[in-house]
Amino acid sequence: GVSVEEMSSVVERVRQCVLVASGDVERKVTGRVQKQKADRARVREEKEIRRQEKLAEKGKRKLENLQKRYERDLERRKKVRLEKRIEREKEQPPPPPPPEPIDDKERRSIELYRERNRRKSEKRKEERRKNREEKGKLRFFERAAASQLALPGAGGQLAFPGAGGQLAFQGEVRESEASFASLK
Asked: Which stretches does UniProt call biased (Basic and acidic residues) (predicted)?
């Protein structure tokens, strides 16, 4: 038989071995997990870098395409403009033929016609000017008469005696002066 102490010491040793082994396993496991995490992080970083590079490449291509399209459009517009100009030049009517020479008799009749028209228009202008002056004079006298009528005194009536055609107040001048002074 085996004594109880030996048994207990064996059990203790086994327990120790198990503890050590479990510790090793734990360390191994944690190491592996950390390594996996690091690997994943590295892969993520590499993916991100590739994505950024792709984006940059795409942007560059887009810019180049835009530039090319702009240049193509420019060329096309130039071409269209040129074609339109050529079309316009084709469509333009030929220059008018030089006027036929006018003989002296015809020239004289044209001059007379123009002269007559000029005289008529000058006459009309003169008539219009006279009418304007007449109207102006008339208005002036109408205004003057209206202001005279508005003057107080002696009923403010106007008498137009035939002889001399002067304006004469009915009533006395003194009376109108007095009433005029009272207005001041």
From this structure: 36-76, 83-92, 102-115, 123-137
Q: How many other C-beta atoms can be found within 10 angstroms of the C-beta atom of residue 169?
A: 17
* Residues linked to residue 158 through DSSP beta bridges, in sequence order: 169
Cα–Cα distance for residue pair 152/173, rounded to 1 Å: 11
Q: Distance (Å, rounded) from C-alpha 22 to C-alpha 2?
A: 28
Q: Tell me what the mean pLDDT of segment 70-87 comes to.
A: 93
Assigned token pair, 93: 């009517």
Angular region, 107: left φ>0, alpha ψ -120 to 50, beta rest: alpha
Alpha carbon distance, N-terminus to C-terminus of the chain: 158
What is the per-residue DSSP string for the chain? ---HHHHHHHHHHHHHHHHHHHHHHHHHHHHHHHHHHHHHHHHHHHHHHHHHHHHHHHHHHHHHHHHHHHHHHHHHHHHHHHHHHHHHHHHSPPPPPPPPPPPHHHHHHHHHHHHHHHHHHHHHHHHHHHHHHHHHHHHHHHHHHHHHHHS-SGGG-EE--TTTT--EESS-HHHHHHHHHHH-
Task: Give the residue carrying structure tokens 């010491």.
Answer: 9
CA 80, 85, 90, 92 torsion-angle sign: positive
Q: pLDDT tens digits, residue range 118-128?
A: 999 999 999 99
